[in-house]
Description:
By secondary structure, this protein is mostly helical. The protein is built from four helices and two strands, in the order H-H-H-E-E-H. Keywords: Cell membrane, Membrane, Transmembrane, Transmembrane helix. It comes from Acrocarpospora phusangensis.
Amino acid sequence: MTYSPPRDRLWFLRRRAYLVFVLRELTSLFVAWSVVYLILLLDAAAGGALPAFWAWAAGPWVLAVNVLALGATVFHSVTFLNLAPKATVIRLDGWRVPGFMISGGNYSAWLAVSVLILWVLS
């Protein structure tokens, strides 16, 4: 009989980096919910059922899930953009672009797209 050590099911609570990793992976579910919600909205708009969609979307549980999804999606986006300089190496004439410039470019693009969306919606 071989020895099998007991499994620690809460391994991710040992270090902050592990916890952030697990939370970031779990936020993918809320990102998926946001995509499904937008597809339902587009389907309702194409099918002429927007009043029924808005009535459903005004339900308390849908509002709660959407607020939670917004927070989770922002967390997912920020952690993704913070990891980008570690995963992306850009060289220009042998010079490595510093991480803060990669992050700054990503955050600037995020801000520009957000402003564009707000301008289109207003």
